[in-house]
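Hey, I'm writing a tutorial for new members on how sequence and structure tokens pair up, and I'd like a real worked example in the thread rather than a made-up one. If someone can provide the structure for the chain below, I'll link this post from the tutorial.
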Amino acid sequence: MNEMIKNIHNRKSVRVYEEKIVSPEEKGMIIDAAIQAPTAGNQMMYTIIDVTDGDLLKKLSKSCDNQPFIAKAKMALIFCADYQKWIDTFSIVEENPRKPGVGELLLGCNDALIAAQNAVIAAESLGIGSCYIGDIMEKFEYHKELLNLPRYVFPVTMIVFGHPTEQQKNRSKPKRFDKKYIVHENAYHKMDSAELRSMFEDRAALTPNVSFDFAKWVHAFYKRKYDSDFSKEMTRSISEYIKLFDGK
């Protein structure tokens, strides 16, 4: 296994950091790596907001599901799907350019997330931990104003970075599902209840000395995540962003 693949396997979400700063050189390398990511048609349909203001970080730590560690981040980047710069460019030359739609939104999301993943792997290679913050997609009205986002810009994810503590370095990475449940050959395979149970039970078996009750786990996860207020708010907010792209 080469070093790049080791970094991919070792990378995990880190929410506790040392006081050590992320140096300007390290930040530059992480951002440069993000910018080298694959992009549809070389359009780079994203913008990266580098959050350097401490007060802004504090506001984001509250609006993004009240997570105090965000306010202490030594580096934070917000990756936005951005078709605003393209429609503005077209408008210089074209008299009535077609308005962007949900296709442009999804392509921009792809571009932004591919760049973001380049950033976290680059950070991992430098010994810098990271954590994705999907809550930036929530609170449509608040984040749109807070970040001065124009119509055709959508904040896909925020990533916070920092040097992990020893405890975080030594913490086990959560187990993933076995690839036999994830990789389908040639066409999608809809799993039945027995296969779905096995998928979760097989993963749980990788963690020794931990009992697993499928029904209890699914019920708790459903209430904590899928049926939660923040999940419903995320759906509401994303629907509002889609309206901007789908507006006639």
